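Late entry, evening session. Most of the bench is empty. Finally got around to the prediction I had been postponing all week. Sequence below, unchanged from the version circulated by S.P.
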Amino acid sequence: MNLKRIIIFCISLVFLISCKSKGDSNKKNQNGESHTGVPELSVIRGKVIDSKKQKIAYAAVKLYLDEDDCMSAYTDVDGFFELTVDQLRVKDQSHFEVVFKGYAINMLSLRNFTEDKPIILTKKGKIVSVADYRIFYESIKKCANK
């Protein structure tokens, strides 16, 4: 009688373990990559300065994830910005566009961005007017910051 209980217990345990491991396995997408559907969030922090290493407050920072998807941020009084990005939305062509009045627009690939190097705005090139800056500043509020 005792052996019968042990056998039933072992079979039940094997069944439970196999069901659990099957339910926990990640689904594969068409490319064979694992994807659980859960966002892989990471925080991107940066600083915007000018060529004289002066911090630039209230610069408008737009992160183009692809041609139809973007995120936005604005630098604080010390020139810092922060974005929380779902890594599954990041593409090879993802890039920053940083705009501030009186400076040229800075475009920077996300692949070339490192948090320990500030984004530098210069006065070389087409200078952004106050009106263009305000238009850009307001327009990036429509970006999906999810």
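Two things to note before I forget:
Helices lie at 2-24, 130-139.
The longest strand covers residues 41-50.
Will write this up properly tomorrow.
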